[in-house]
Amino acid sequence: MNKILQKSSVIWIPIICYLAAIEVIVLFRKPELFLSKTLFLIRVILALIFFGSYFLYNKLKPKVWNFVTIVAVYASLTVLYKETAILNTLFYPVIDPILIRWDQAIFGFQPAIKFSEILSSAVISELLFFGYFSYYLMPLAVFALLWKFPIRKIQEFGFILICSFLVYYLFFIMIPAVGPQFYWDYPENHIDAQGIFGKIIKIIQKNGEVPTAAFPSSHVGIALIILIWLYQNLRKKLFYFVPFVFLLILATVYIKAHYVVDVIGGILSAPLVYFFSNRLFQKIPKSYADYH
Are 214 and 81 in contact (CB under 8 A)? Predict the structure, then answer.
């Protein structure tokens, strides 16, 4: 067991805890899902990444090994995200009608419809699509900035990032909402792509998005968690990220991925999720990082 721990990254801790929680949920809510080919395949993918990382331990420099492992696990979150669409109605039906009523009560109209109608110019559209696209690049940009930092700091950011994603995935399972792009019909759920970033996001939505993950907005939550971490660790770099996070927050509603109340939920939840993820990481003995 000690040998396995020595050659595994700390970021597997939240993954294992998350998978254990999912197995408990499935056991009590829908045991037949244990036979699901989709869930089985996802676990096979994660196992392959784990053993691949394990066997690369002595073949790469420690810092390179940590980066490769963290980025591989970060990429694998895509399949765990899609899994939430299978699990997100095990407790309740989708709550989109409630979220729509809240937006209507606050604004007197549906911002996810009106926003793109009012600001329909090609320049603004492309700018906001770019803001949404930047969400996928921000974690990688932080990793690039961390190249010269101690391994423990690289592990810290990777752990907090991945743990935060998994906390939001549990939210999506317990609070089922699919968002305007899936709940509404055409044309209310549609916005034209008028430039290259718009087309890229359309491809991502077509191939990567599934009816889940609306409330609270993990796009907003994760982006703010990155800002919080930067504020505490790389404050001089913080302001380079702020404009992209601002555009991202606007874009989530503009491209009809979220209702405004989802964004509010993301803003309010981010400090709590960060606190939980950071505290969990701080509980890990520093001697564990010394293995690497």
Answer: no
Q: Report the domain count for the chain.
A: 1
Q: Within 10 Å of residue 292's Cβ, how many Cβ atoms?
A: 19
Q: Mind giving me the DSSP string for 16-81?
A: HHHHHHHHHHHHHH-GGGGG-HHHHHHHHHHHHHHHHHHHHTTTS-HHHHHHHHHHHHHHHHHHHH
Structural domain span for residue 279 = 2-290
Give residue for tokens 């907090």: 160
Q: In angstroms, rounded to a whole number, what is the distance separating the alpha carbons of residues 191 and 116? A: 7
Distance CA(16)–CA(55), nearest Å, equals 19
pTM of the full predicted structure?
0.95
Q: Are 243 and 228 in contact (CB under 8 A)?
A: no
pLDDT in tens, 49-91: 999 999 999 899 989 999 999 999 999 999 999 999 999 999 9
- Compute the Cα dihedral for 270, 273, 276, 281 and give only its sign: negative
pLDDT tens digits, residue range 188-245? 999 999 899 999 999 999 888 999 999 999 999 999 999 999 999 999 999 999 999 9
